[in-house]
Amino acid sequence: MFNFNLLPSPADNVYRGNKIALWFFIAFVCLMTWRSIIHMLFEKFGMHEIANLVVLSGDPDPMPLIYMFFSLWGFAQLIFCGVCWIVIFRYKSLIPLMLVFWLIEWSGRLFLYPLIGRGTVDSGIYSTGNTPGVEGAPYVTILLVIFLILSLREKK
User: Fold this and answer.
1) I need a labelling partner for 88 at 20 to 30 A (CA). Which of 27, 31, 50, 115 fits?
2) How many whole angstroms separate alpha carbon 74 and alpha carbon 69?
3) Confidence bin at 123 (pLDDT 50/70/90)
4) What pLDDT is recorded for position 93?
5) C-alpha distances in angstroms, 3 versus 35, 89, 91, 105, 156?
6) pLDDT tens for residues 57-100?
7) CA-CA distance, 83 to 88, in Å (whole number)?
8) How far is 108 from 90, CA to CA, in rounded Å?
9) Residues 6 or more apart from 152 whose CB is under 8 A from it?
10) With contact defined as beta carbons under 8 Å apart, do 108 and 72 qualify?
């Protein structure tokens, strides 16, 4: 049936959930790792070409500082992806927990940011269009819920 124990004791490399959820998690972590690398190393491209954010001007130029924060955000994402890769290769029993963490991140974009007034970036003042994270958040959140449920369902 369902095993709602997100912290198995011991954490081992035995994945008990549905195999489709395992392969979804691997593909998802590949995509998130690529996203993290773009944010970290190609911050100008990721910020302007992908995220549709406009170049700000001023004296002093604010963009180097903004690029640095964008790059640091990518680095933080990459660290979390590294933890996910460790789970994939060594601690597969923790995959449901990692899916919960991803679900918190993606559902936060959908539910939390509008509540705390972070919608100004999408108002057209700072951007020329929605970011992929804004447009994809509803779909990714639904997918993460589905695959979390599948990852908790044990084989008979």
Assistant:
1) 50
2) 9
3) low
4) 93
5) 31, 21, 16, 23, 12
6) 999 999 999 999 999 999 999 999 999 999 999 999 999 999 99
7) 9
8) 28
9) 2, 3, 4, 17, 96
10) no
CA of residue 30 relative to chain centroid, distance: 11
Strand-pairing partners, residue 44, are none
User: Which residue ranges make up each domain of the chain?
Assistant: 19-152
105 token code pair: 């991140």
Instruction: Give the model's confidence band at 133: pLDDT under 50 very low, under 70 low, under 90 confident, else very high.
Output: confident
Torsions phi, psi of 153, nearest 5? -80, 115
What is the phi-psi region of residue 107: left when phi exceeds 0, alpha when psi lies from -120 to 50, beta otherwise? alpha
3 three-state secondary structure? coil
- Whole-structure pTM value: 0.88
The residue written with tokens 């936060």 in the block is 108
pLDDT range class, residue 51, cuts 50, 70, 90: confident
Asked whether 148 and 100 are in contact (CB, 8 A), the reply is yes
Cα–Cα distance between 128 and 50 in angstroms, integer? 11
For residue 69, the 8-state DSSP code is: H
